[in-house]
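Researcher: Good morning. I'm working through a list of sequences from a screen, and I'd like to move beyond sequence-only analysis. For each chain I'm collecting a predicted structure so we can compare shapes side by side. This is the next one on the list. No need for commentary yet; just the structure.
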Amino acid sequence: MKMKDYAMRLNCLRKLTSVALISIALSLISGCQNGGDLMGGLSGGSKKYELAYLKQNLIPGKTTKAQVMALFGAPHEEELQATNGRNDSNWTYDKREEGVDKYVQLAHKYVSTETSLKMYSASAQVNRVDDAVSDVNSVVGTKRAASKVTGSELIIYFKDDVIDYYRLF
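Model: Good morning. Structure tokens for this chain:
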């Protein structure tokens, strides 16, 4: 009897955990879709993927690696190109490797396949709703700020520890 009770409690705990993870993931996904900076650091420093913010804070020939590190933290990937006695390097920041996206990826690893599929489905529905809202806004003339250019990958090219140029993809 005790083994049966244990199995029932364990099954119940798994279901509660799955429901909690789905709820958290949906909250985080919908918060990001609405442009909110949900719970501070969970957004993964999304401003670094906005062109206007980059233009204000990254000045080629002036901004140093130390300043970039203070603004954005450590890069996801770093590539050194030591040629001709110079210290050239590239830093890559990838939005998919930080913030909410990273937490959702981690959640997929620890839930059942069924729960993972539900999370993908919920995320797809949130994206569809966001697309529908954008379409409606464009039809009724209340578009979101069209000048807000964003990307999901930022590569900063340095020459001798100072920004040479950067690209947003």
